[in-house]
Fold this sequence. Notes:
Layout: H1 3-8, E1 11-16, E2 21-23, E3 26-35, E4 44-46, H2 52-61, E5 66-69, E6 72-85, E7 89-96, H3 101-112, E8 117-129, E9 135-148, E10 158-159, H4 169-186
Parallel strand pairs: 4-9, 5-9
Antiparallel strand pairs: 1-8, 2-3, 3-7, 3-10, 5-6, 6-7, 8-9
Amino acid sequence: MSDFHTHMGLEHKFVRLGQTAQTEDGIAIEGYASFFGEADNGNDVVVEGAYAKSLDELSQTGRSVKMLWQHDPSQPIGIWDEVREDKKGLYVNGRILTDVERGREAAALIEAGAIDGLSIGYRTVKATKNDKGQRLLSELELWEVSLVTFPMLPSARVGAKGEIPGDDALLCELAAALKEARQILAGD
Length: 188
């Protein structure tokens, strides 16, 4: 995490990116950046309604959730045209801008299958622990949704219009291995 993100108290959650479609304005992507009620590899569970206040405040002030490359605030690569909660989770729909150099690179990496993850950048406003030791995130200040290399919540994906792919067992195993490696390096 960059010094900027550490200073701002931002956290990140990773999800899986699926298929894309070419549009006149870039590469169209849509899907879920977060699912409610599912524990991620960090043992956090987002509660239904966690994004509502933040999305409402963004809308009222005319601001938007940013689309970034690997959580780098100096590398916006597209536009989220729609970010909303529904009964499943946080739905996103947007375009990777191929007129931007990093956007072209991201599109090429996605098309080659080298990049397929999304990650949310947020600040926790309200959270509690449950009896399973999970952190229940009930209010989040959403800042950005990034395209990333490794998703934290493999069941959540972006897909082609109208298609949200299912779980990917290999990515679940890889994410679990990364979590274990992080714990070993942290001395936990």
